[in-house]
Amino acid sequence: MAGMVIIGAGECGGRAALALRDLGYDGPVTLVGDEPHLPYERPPLSKEAMTAEAPAIKAIASDDLFAERSIRHIHSVRAVAIDRAAHRVHLSDGSSLAYDKLLLATGSVPRQLPMPGLGGRCVYLRTFNDALAIRSHLSAGNRVAVIGGGFIGLELAASARKLGATVTVIEAQPRILMRGVTAEIAEIIHKAHEAEGVAIRTGQGLAAIADEGKEVGITLAGGQRIVADLAVIGIGAVPMTALAAEAGLAIDNGIAVDEHLRAADPDIFAAGDCCSFPLAIYGGRRVRLEAWRNAQEQGALAARNMLGADEAHAAVPWFWSDQYGLTLQIAGLSDEGKSVVRRDLDDGAFILFHLAEDGRLVAASGIGPGNAVARDIRLAEMLIAKRASPAPEALGSQAVKLKSLLAA
Amino acid sequence: MSDWVEACAAGDIDEEDVMRFDHAGRTFAIYRSPDDEYFATDGLCTHEKVHLADGLVMDDIIECPKHNGRFNYKTGDARGAPVCVNLKTYPVKVDAGKVLIQVG
Asked: CB of A284 within 8 Å of any CB in chain B?
């Protein structure tokens, strides 16, 4: 028996490997990753890994557990080619592995700025080692330029402020968080950053950026120059699809898989950030998600289907971000909505319910201190999954418990 | 071990809901199940030390508000990723309309 091979030892690949064992599979399970570490959680990299006194990897499970479960972890190695006819994957160290089923959980990498040769003071964040490199430049009085007002950039900005750095966020779009976050919520996050002393420049493209040896020189499209000790670039992520593309698998904004996460080969699956898949709750709309929970859920689902379950992905997309004391949570895709109902909670927290034209609840976005919105966002997620069309006045009234709408 | 402490009044918690209770520098979560029984566990999720009382109770499951780790609050059993460490549970009794927990 050749066994199961998983390419990519992040959250998704790691969860898939553990799930195969949870499901009772007792053949060989091999997890191949290009980092030196066992699978670890990436969400803390922009937050606790920056601000904790001693940054530590948060492993998704202990070394012992992977050993106990007989999961073979090949680290610091990339997969370079898939021989689909021979059911064999070739690795960068010259070795190769036979597989019965192959899972591609290759993830995504930071989108690169088009300017070549940026230099060591211009950095991206994806791995724990990237986080350590960024952290070494974050100290009181240092000047940090964050290129990109998305989640990674804003979370890093918040962490850098906590450490006393001077922070400027530069965003080419007219506002921060253009993708997936409504203006009303983005405005609250924008104000929180300004209140904490972050300078935000929106609507400003980059004309030039260069590591000038002792500092980074940045020129905005309008001609203004900004000088920083460190530039962190967070302008999105691109899926790792080269391996799949070279093997002749279909690519469509990610490795294209069906609702069972199967690629254009019955023995190859893809899951997590690297794949695009049809989302049943939105009529089969093809999406690619860069999200921690999706990586977990799809890793586990791929494992079940590699063992023959034939189960369709049905989860509602879910996402969160922490900045200062605020937490944002989003269930569903808000761009599916045509109208919005607001529900105010205690302590200034609120939830926006996004309704489709026919009244169906398609998404909910909430923001507030601590975990103020968590419970209602979770209930909204269940309502979205049920394709419920709750009365707008019930959604808008704090007096009506969302849980009561679930039973309806 | 007779260190029973009063956590709240029985009516303070709705059915199928949870409440936070802090005592002597520790934090607990007190639950009222859909069939009107009371339970108590440690107050913080074993994954990232988040207060479970902000989470959602569904049947006999408490779900962490941060990352959706799930526990059976009656037994403390962890129910899947990202949580793998069980929650500690505490004996509970209801006496004269008061919920008491044995903090041990």
From this structure: no
H-assigned helices in B6-91 = none
A371–chain B nearest CA distance, Å: 6
Q: How far is B65 from chain A (nearest CA, A)?
A: 5
Count how many residues are written for chain B.
104
Which parts of chain B register pLDDT below 70? Answer: 1-2
Question: Which SS3 state, helix, strand or coil, does residue B58 take?
Answer: strand
Q: How many domains does chain B have?
A: 1
Chain A hits for B63, CB-CB cut-off 8 Å, are 378
pLDDT in tens, A188-209: 999 999 999 999 999 989 999 9
Residue A216 has pLDDT above 80, yes or no: yes
Query: Does pLDDT of A73 surpass 90?
Result: yes
* Chain B CB within 8 Å of residue A375 CB: yes
Domains parsed from chain A with CATH numbers: 4-109+239-306 (3.50.50.60), 112-233 (3.50.50.60), 325-407 (3.30.390.30)
Residues of chain B by 3-state class (helix, strand, coil), percent to 5: 5, 45, 50
Provide the pLDDT for residue A118: 80
pLDDT band at A180 (very low <50, low <70, confident <90, very high): confident
Query: Is the CB of B54 less than 8 angstroms away from the CB of A378?
Result: no
Range of the domain at B77: 4-102
Q: In what order do the strands lie in the sheet with A225-228?
A: A206-211, A216-220, A225-228
